[in-house]
Specification:
This protein is 43% helix and 17% strand. The protein has 456 residues and is an alpha/beta fold. The protein has a domain of 170 residues: Alpha-Beta Barrel (Anaerobic Ribonucleotide-triphosphate Reductase Large Chain), CATH 3.20.70.20. Strands 1, 2, 3, 4, 5, 6, 7, 8, 9, 10 and 13 form an eleven-stranded mixed sheet that branches. A two-stranded antiparallel ribbon has the order 11-12. The longest helix has 30 residues.
Length: 456
Amino acid sequence: MTMDFDVHNIMETIEMIKVHHLDIRTVTLSLSLRDCCSSDTKKLSAKIYDKITKYASNLAKCACELEDEYSIPIINKRIAVTPISIITESVDNPDFIHIAKTLDKAAKEVGVDFLGGYSALVEKGCTEGDKRFMASIPEALASTERVCSSVNLAGSKAGINMVGVYKTAEIIKKAAELTKDKDGIGAAKFVCFCNSVTDNPFMAGAYCGVNEPECALNIGVSGPGVVRWAIENMDKKADLGEVANTIKKTAFKITTTGELIGRELAKRLDIPFGVIDLSLAPTPAEGDSVAGIFQAMGLSDAGAHGTTAALAMLNDAVKKGGIMASSYVGGLSGAFIPVSEDAGMIEAARKGVLTIDKLEAMTSVCSVGLDMIAIPGDTPSATIAGMIADEMAIGMINKKTTAVRVIPVWGKKAGEWVKFGGLLGEAPIMKMHDCDSSVFINRLGRIPAPIHSLNN
């Protein structure tokens, strides 16, 4: 039996990979730790370590083999576990730092880049266990290399936990302070959410939700450079409907490639395939930029008037194209706008075109929210809490996921520069408003869920 190959499609795929930065951004093993519960910290830790090293022992090895066989880069190998605040709820006098170091040790043993799930779900309030757990987050992030943390503070059904919002602002400040010798890298491994997603494969927010199976392989595929290339090759007079259609077709090709790799890796690991996340995640590499897509559409810079409209069209077209390519699209799926991780965003922020206010407007239509934004180290906790509350409100009202990942950089002011390295990139310290939010924030309590939450 012979097979017919489309030479054009083969060459196009090769060019997407070699020239335009198409890659599998992450393969993430989602793993339930619900059966690891114990009243003793050391027993719990031993169970966690054994389960992770059992299920993930071949993850990095098989992923590297697939890279070689298919000649497509797999940038990160990751693990997402059940939120640790839930697993530790029944532990007598839990030693959270010991548990965090156990997670880090297991991640290192199996050769993954990051492990997510040092997390808590507190959108409607905190248990006593949640409070103890959240207090441990800054030290846990400072004392580990691969562990990532998240908290869900709000939801369209629950409203906004303003007590949690303020505690989270203090967590961010403390995590940055404890790692100030590394420009606050601890805060870069932490994110807070509204409407967090249980099958998200991207860090720092990945965790295995309690409604997820024993294990699954979730894929995050990315290709902003490919989308930009496709738009730049269009007729310059093409209208925006045609541009949207081109993005859809490109997203279809990207998704097909990603699911092929994901299913083959899941098969080799003998675990179920979970979802493919379509999020366009940029890198600091030239040409691998979401901001570059805006420029290909006709905007001079990310942040120019029209950017929010362009991002809305991009996000929608990516989802429409991806959903036609796979029946198992999940996670966040859309476009990320992390400032320090996107060369075009970095340049727009440096020029002052892209401001925090404009970024906030863009989050109303993008995949997540305020992401990888460096701010002055002396920013008050109440100001950070106000920023978080604003972002939670956008997610709550619009019934979408929003998030905040900001890094207060100790000893640096607005306009100075910070370099994180690797995928985390570099960025200017962005200016915050000098206005005081403290009286509003210190009212605490819970902002009620909106009227559309009553939709049963």
